[in-house]
Structure formats: C-alpha cells, structure tokens
Design goal:
The chain is α+β, with helices and mostly antiparallel strands and 161 residues long. It is built from 6 helices and 8 strands; from the N terminus they run βααββββαααβββα. A 6-stranded antiparallel beta sheet has the order 1-2-3-4-5-8. Strands 6-7 form a two-stranded antiparallel ribbon. Helix 2 packs parallel to helix 6. The model has no long low-confidence stretch (mean pLDDT 92).
Amino acid sequence: MAKEKGSFKDFLSAVAPEYQAFVEKLNNKLMEQGCDLVIKEAKSGYTASYRLENKTVMNWVFRKSGVLARIYGDNARKYEDIIASLPADMQKKMTASRDCKRLIDPMACSDTCVKGFVYDLNGNTYKKCRNDGMFFLLTDESAEHIADLVCAEVAVRKSAP
C-alpha cells in the first residue's frame, strides 16, 4: 500500500546518479507546463506521479532493473510522428505490450478501467493497455524519447477544450 510521503529530493536521491539530472530537468519542464507532482512510498521504492487536472500523465516507478517511466498515452493518436521516431526497441516494447481488453470488447475488464489507447505504427493499428503500453526503462537511449512522449501527451491534454 502506497502512502503519501517523501519529497522530490528524497525521490531524486533514489534515482541512479547518472539519470538524476535528466529526471530533474523533466520534472521542471512538467511543472512549468502545469503538472502537479505526487510522491508516494511503495514497497519497491518511491513512485512519482505527474498529474494534469487530476489525471495522471506519467509515473516514475522503481523496479529491480531500475527506474521506469509509465506514460499514460491517452492521446497517442495525436503524436504518432513521435511514436514512429522512437528507437526500434522502444517501438517493439510498445507493440509487444498487452492489448487493452476493453477497447476490443467493451464488456471485458473492470468497470473502473479507464481504457487504453490506440495508435497506428508502420501501417498497423494497436490498441494497448494504458498500464504497460508505454512503460520504458530509463536508459541513456530512452531518456529523451520518454521526455518527448510525455511532453507531447501534456501538450495535447492542455490544448483540449
């Protein structure tokens, strides 16, 4: 059970030193764009959630492999150019992730399911679960792509009427 606790400084100190500057820079960019930050402590470490108008845009979560970005790409269709520009391994992670049961069958999954997201890539349409459809390990290669994806999602949400 996650509990409200911890500061951004505590969270950042848990991030591998080589990624702290990137995480801090992205934090500043998301805060400037009007996101709120909620940090909680969980069994596996901290979770840092960025919310825009009370809807989560992305989380940082800790796993044994490192820190991962979970991006809630509700509007992925509106930035397919960014998805198409991702490195092959990130595209593969997205296309290999589980499909959204509820997008395929509205009666499947839980009533509380928010539904996943839909996007086209290389001539195929994908309907992916929002929990792991954009779930990337933070690496030197993935860092800027993670920033591009989350900033695109924020920009689309902010432009919505």
